[in-house]
């Protein structure tokens, strides 16, 4: 290779690296950390919706604490359907219960008792 070949090789390398850095900057600028596209908002605008916490219950189900404005929503997702478990004011005052029961009753209904695990199918308790 002569010197012009090396020059072309280096110029192509610089161009490709520059293109990769530009793409990384664009992705960082317009894609949030959870890899979903956030809307193009004017600079300094307050985001109204975000996931405060997330907890994996098992391989399919997850509990999310979602903040919308000044309200927290406890949501169970996965496992065939999504359920709003509870709505909480962000200031810590008394919760308002959604659906047909409170969160503790939901957990009690969803929990399998140890005696039910030892029973044989088809036998009455």
TrEMBL record:
One Pfam family here: FliO
This protein's record includes keyword Repeat: no
UniProt family annotation: Belongs to the FliO/MopB family.
PANTHER family per the UniProt record, alphabetical: FLAGELLAR PROTEIN FLIO
Biological process according to GO: bacterial-type flagellum organization
GO cellular component entries: bacterial-type flagellum basal body; plasma membrane
Protein name per Swiss-Prot or TrEMBL: Flagellar biosynthetic protein FliO
UniProt keyword terms in alphabetical order: Bacterial flagellum, Cell membrane, Cell projection, Cilium, Flagellum, Membrane, Transmembrane, Transmembrane helix
Location relative to the cell: Bacterial flagellum basal body; Cell membrane
Natural source organism: Phaeovibrio sulfidiphilus
InterPro entries reported in the protein's UniProt record: Flagellar_biosynth_FliO, FliO/MopB
Entry superkingdom: Bacteria
